[in-house]
Amino acid sequence: MGTAGAERYPHLFSPLRLGPLELQNRFVVPALTTNFGDLDGQVTDEVCGYLGRRGAGGFGLVVCENFGVQAGAKAMPRMLMAHEDRYIPGMAKLAAAVKQTGAPVLAQLNHPGRQTKSKFTGHELVAPSAIPCPINREMPRALSRDEIPEWEEYYVRAAERAAEAGFDGVEVHGAHGYLVAGFLSSYANTREDDYGGSLENRCRFLLNIVDGIRNRMGPEFPLSVRISAREFVPDGIDVAEAIEIGRAVAAHGANALSVSVGVYQTFNKLSMVTGEPEGQWLDLAGEVRAGIPIPVMGVGRLVRAQVAEQGLAAGQIDLACFGRASMADPELPAKIRRRREAEVLTCMGCNICLGRSSRPESICPVNPTIGREAEFDFVATASAQTVAVVGTSFSALTAAWVAAKCGHRVTLHGNSAQGGSLGGLMALRAKVPGNAVIGETAAALLGRAQAAGVQFSEQLPEAADVVWAVREFRPLDAAGPEGAISAAAVLEGDQAGEALVIGDDLCAAEAAVVLAQRGGQVTLLSPARDIANDAHPGFREICRRRLEAAGANIEVKVAEPFAHAARDQADFVVLGRGAVADWDDAGNWRLPEVGLPVSAYLDDAYEPGLLTRTVYEAVALARAL
Ligand SMILES: Cc1cc2nc3c(=O)[nH]c(=O)nc-3n(C[C@H](O)[C@H](O)[C@H](O)COP(=O)(O)O)c2cc1C
Ligand code: SF4
After folding, report:
1. How far apart are CA 397 and CA 302, in angstroms?
2. Is 178 one of the annotated active-site residues of the chain?
3. 193, 187 in Cβ contact below 8 A?
4. C-beta of residue 116 within 8 angstroms of C-beta of residue 74
5. Which domain holds residue 51?
6. Tens digit of each residue's pLDDT (9 = 90 or more) over 43-61
7. Hey, whose CA ends up nearest to atom 29 of ligand 1?
8. Residues flanking ligand 2, CB < 6 Å
9. What is the pLDDT of residues 333-386, one digit of tens each?
């Protein structure tokens, strides 16, 4: 590997000693549950392939997704488990898959406490106190004083298993409201014994685990602790307590503190969506780092090397965690090192990966190789065909890339009349203030296709063996009440003025944001119980925040939006999903004019979940050629 990127980002590419580990650089993959284990919690080839690629991509440290430390410790149906010795061989395969790439790997150890469901765990939920998680709403049993040492021991035994399996060390998951965090925080811990009340008492569970691991594994065993330095809930942990916790774990022998934020109730702060500031929690990490004597890992929508480099240079962090960014592009550090930054497949912050338990078939609209990496080690076909892909949606860019990797001769036809700007409907999303990253992602997807040999043309194809064309779901461009325009048309155009926006989807909400920021008085009416219902809740929060900042009105559960008083004042009406009954009509699909017979249509979508489906279907289509 060259050193050019290292000159540009000297802090990111400098080594760091972490206990006995010599890290080659400061890029860290933080723990990211894949849900690729089997239903028994055993490691699968998918997990090994997934994490091995991150090690091979040049990350200085890989923290493996959380392992359950006790039989009832599942936070996800397919979470990896480490509560019995029979898991050690699978764990060993996973540790080896990463270590053979040269990257050190830690196993994160966790029990979700009250933040899970007994239908996943098959066990009653436990917590420091009998207070249900406000999100999961299932009453946990408060652990009795007598049984707590046994629960501390579960973590220690799991650490021993991780070491036996060959992991370089462990990270105790004390963040995000799970069992350890529950003990740490007065938000969840109202115990009146020596495990509750003062911070010293609330730290006891964590510190006994740290001591247990140190005593059992010796002073040289790498040990990280992850905490939420702000929980954003009443009585929750804040920076002053976080510093005390950090000092205590350091004094008990932890080698690093991973500084995250949030609990389930404040999850939008934890994995922030598109438009939230990159590196938002670096200041917080810096405050903690200033008060403790061990290295700090920082996290929070780190996407660009420059932001992480600044955090390192400013002394806010010692290590930079690229969470979803490492999912979207496992080769992020290697590309940056080779000064191929423009080729990084940038994570859009859509949070589809967070909803993967309900959408197990689709993980990421940017990187469909996740969890099936080996399938994408293509073998060139013996019967290459010429393929014309008309349109530049994410599905088109992906289909073109896959077909080219399979050895076909592919041309992508990006005539603006056919596919709009680069990225299809995502080009519209990229126009929403704060969403520029989506445009970068589209450009990187084009770069990936071109690197695989795809030609680009602004003309329509004249001949091809196979023609794939993008059709767009563009509801109500023509239909709808007199004078109404679609939310997509607002993003495409420059309308401004007093507007009534009707719709329950992300496109309507973002069109309302754009109109409000263009200066007009905007009223957004949703027939459903919230706005942006089809997207991750983080988008509801950020759209609401922006609309409120711009003085817009928002009303939900509006039964007769067209009869709303705001219609009389509005210069125009904008329609999104849910506004009219014929939304799903076939007539709402905009078909491209290609001039050749179309072999198959590719779909496009505005909402990230649907978009992901279109990308996975595009992969299947191209692989079947
Ligand atoms: C799909 C997914 C799974 C996650 N699983 C874990 C986990 O097992 N343990 C953990 O400490 N954090 C977990 N997190 C939080 C991430 O480690 C990280 O803190 C968060 O995504 C913010 O970083 P990012 O903006 O770089 O993605 C998860 C996040 C995502 C998106
Ligand atoms: S699914 Fe979305 S948020 Fe998750 S890694 Fe992919 S682009 Fe990023």
Report:
1. 25
2. yes
3. no
4. yes
5. 13-374
6. 999 999 999 999 999 999 9
7. 32
8. 324, 327-328, 347-353, 364, 366
9. 999 999 999 899 999 999 999 877 666 667 899 999 999 998 888 888 889 999
